Amino acid sequence: MNSDGETPRDRARRLRVQPTKEEAELWKHLRAERFGGLKFRRQHRIGPYFADFCCVKRRPIVELDGDHHAEQKKLDAARAAYLIERGYRVIRFWNEQVMGELDDVLEAIYAALTDSLSAPPGRRGDNGPSLGA
Questions:
Q1: Per-residue model confidence as pLDDT tens digits over 75-118
Q2: How far apart are CA 54 and CA 2, in angstroms?
Q3: How many domains does the chain have?
Q4: What is the Cα–Cα distance from 70 to 133, expressed in whole angstroms?
Q5: Does residue 2 belong to any structural domain of this protein?
Q6: How would you list the strands of the sheet with 60-65, edge to edge?
Q7: Confidence of residue 120 (pLDDT cuts 50, 70, 90)
Q8: Tell me: the pLDDT tens digits for 26-61?
Q9: CB 61 within 8 A of CB 90
């Protein structure tokens, strides 16, 4: 439980029920196996963290960052390191990119999905380029 008495399950549910407009827009394209036939989860819990979008099968995590992320770079770096250690690949986009460059965002996500199939074992889980950051 957090300081407000909210359990992790409650927090995940709240985040799914109250998405940002950018999360809702991207989810239209990723939900229901619409994106390359792959299943994405929204607000998927991994340890103490919640991934905005995660394809468990291929291991990329898509994070959408608002303005507050500019002030929390150290926290985001520690979070990414934790996820990478567990075999995930974190790709980040600014909210504005989803609303203004959606096709480019979707292409980058697709590239991360296909790269996870062809990358040599030592490269899986690397953070790759910091897209949109």
A1: 888 999 999 999 999 999 999 999 999 999 999 999 988 875 54
A2: 23
A3: 1
A4: 9
A5: no
A6: 41-46, 49-54, 60-65, 89-94
A7: very low
A8: 999 999 888 888 899 999 999 999 999 999 889 999
A9: yes
Parallel/antiparallel/unpaired status of strands 89-94 and 60-65: parallel
| 51, β-bridge pairs | 44
Distances in Å between the Cα of 2 and the Cα atoms of 6, 10, 69 are: 5, 10, 21
Which range marks the domain in which residue 52 is found?
A: 8-118
DSSP code of residue 56? T
Residue partners of 125: CB distance under 8 A and separation at least 6: 59, 84, 85, 86, 87, 88, 89
Look up residue 91 and give its DSSP letter.
E
Residue 45: strand, helix, or coil? strand
CATH number reported for the structural domain that contains residue 33 in this entry: 3.40.960.10
Any idea which residue has 């980058």 for tokens? 108
